[in-house]
Amino acid sequence: MCGCAWRVHAFTAALVLAAHLIKVLSCGEAGGGSRVAKRYVGLYTGPYFDPAAPNNITAQLGTHAYLPCKVRQLSNKSVSWIRRRDAHILTVDRFTFIADERFQAFLVEATDTWTLQVKYVQARDAGVYECQVGTEPKMSHFVQLNVVVPKIEIIGESDMYVKAGTTVSLKCVITQALEEPAYIFWYHNDERVLNYDKSLVEIRMERVAPDTTVGNLIIYGPRREDSGNYSCSPSNLDSASVVLHVLSGEQPAAMQHGNGAALLLPALLPLLGALLPLLGALLPPPPARRLPALLALALLIPILCHDGADEEGQRQ
User: How far apart are the C-alpha atoms of 187 and 308, rounded to whole Å?
Assistant: First the structure.
């Protein structure tokens, strides 16, 4: 009986010891301490990157980008974000190590994700970023950031000519945009255009396609003082501009080319009349059917020469 009782007591002591060891490993309470450690589960015995985490992020110029780094079973290891193109350490845990305040890291505990935030993304921010865990040896997860730069243009020529009183419609088209701009401001000679009186000015904005937005500035009954530089400026993007010329009956210089030659034609007719008999005496007589063509050619030569002189003067 004594031998059997000894075996029972030994078995009971072994169970108690095993339970205590399990508690120490799972809760870190050896020696009565209160330090809590995460239990390792699955095939991994330490930190590891979630294979389902994205490694390719696309953001539009001027918006915020969020680069995720999902680390499981991190325990007390630190997480750093490094910019690969210059090996610059951006953040370590929640501390930032770059003067550029657009960069910040934060932890989403519910998903074990250390996220690098890049505010107001610029084109030069594109590239590879490394999420590094402070194990030995180091563990790294790489994320590619792509920056989309929308295209902005005002439809038409860079100089627009309109007659006073004629309604003007300026269209600003934004393409290749992942997000619709929050607003499109219009400026006239660097002063913002406001549409308080819609009988004079009207401003519209419409999303016409998944990546295209059109802003429209309509000027009713423009006057000469409405001439000048007009620019459209979408939120967080560059601007595009056009020069508007409001004319009061006159034509722009670009439309007046050649009129000077026509004015000189009456003065040239007496000279042509004196030259034609001289040419007739020096040259053999042409067939009668060629006389109208020769006369027309004689009238056109001075005009063409004068136009050429005008063009040469403008180039100078």
Answer: 40
